[in-house]
Amino acid sequence: MNHGFIKLNRTTETLELLKDPNAFTLLTVIALRARRTDAFNTHNLKPGEALLGDHANYGLTRRQYRSAIRRLKRYGLAGFRPTARGTVATLMGTTIYDINAPEGGQPKANEGPARDQQGATNKKEKKEKKEKNYPADSVERRLAEVLLDLILEAKPDFRRPDLNRWAVEIDRMIRLDGRTPERIEAVIRWCRADAFWQSNILSTTKLRKHFDRLELQMGRDAPQESLREQVARLQREDML
User: Fold this and answer.
1) Contact at 8 Å (CB) between 198 and 154?
2) Sequence-ordered list of residues with C-beta below 8 angstroms from that of 87, at least 6 positions apart, any chain
3) What is the rounded distance in angstroms from the CA atom of residue 192 to the CA atom of residue 204?
4) What was the pLDDT predicted at 84?
5) In terms of Cα–Cα distance, which of 122, 202, 129, 139 is closest to 164?
6) pLDDT at 123
7) d(Cα 197, Cα 209) in Å, to the nearest integer?
């Protein structure tokens, strides 16, 4: 049996999910049932995984259950996979619920250098933030301004940030994360048009943190071409 507690975080994501009671209920069930440790269990579940039972047991119809799964997958809050014993759900991160999973005991011997390296990286990033300056015509500054302009369209009284600091995060996305400026701009414009993410991506720091999730969701939401549309496009491009 799982013991301990789960913690509900007071975040904008939590408030947004509360607008969908069925998805919130399902995420709560996952958090309550999720394994906290990798100790032996008959279902061979890993920490953060939960075996879901009958949807009727937590007050959902089959249709509500499926809709809740789609919403949680879309927001990147939980993953789901079918097994012979039933659906296994995986709690993704601690944005809304923290299940109090232990760190796994004492740090391993090889974790010391990794932590030292992370500390050095953090110091380097802080130094970059203080020293580097991005001119108005730089791609980093331009992309920072694209995000700010789109936020101001929705909220004209949004407090203006230090755009040079925003540009630092764009620089890291390009230089360290391997994102192209075109991909970054596409994700910026998509998240500002999305009902959920437009209230959550309010800085380039948040953009960098959630970039992979945003890009994956953007790809899933992209409309698929019909056969007729594919033929028409190929004709326009003189490929047929």
Assistant:
1) yes
2) 51, 52, 80, 81
3) 12
4) 82
5) 129
6) 59
7) 13
Tokens 């032996």 — which residue? 40
DSSP3 helix / strand / coil % (the chain, rounded to 5)? 55, 10, 40
Least confident of 16-25, 103-112, 165-174, 195-204: 103-112
Polymer length of the chain: 240
CB 36 within 8 A of CB 100: yes
Beta bridge partners of 78: 91
Q: Which two tokens stand for residue 97?
A: 């619920």
Amino acid at 203: S
Whether pLDDT at 163 is above 90 = yes
- CB distance 196 to 96 below 8 Å: no
Structural domains in the chain, sorted by start: 7-98 (1.10.10), 129-221 (no CATH)
- For the chain, where are the E strands, in sequence order? 7-8, 49-51, 78-83, 86-91, 97-98
Quick one: tokens of 140?
């980093």
DSSP per-residue string spanning 147-166: HHHHHHHH-TTPPP--HHHH
With the CA atoms of 32, 38, 42 and 43 taken in that order, what torsion angle do they form, in degrees rounded to the nearest 10?
60
Q: Alpha-carbon distance 202 to 160, whole Å?
A: 11
Report the run of H or E that residue 131 belongs to, with start and end: helix 111-131
Cα dist. 80→57, 62, 111 in Å? 18, 16, 31
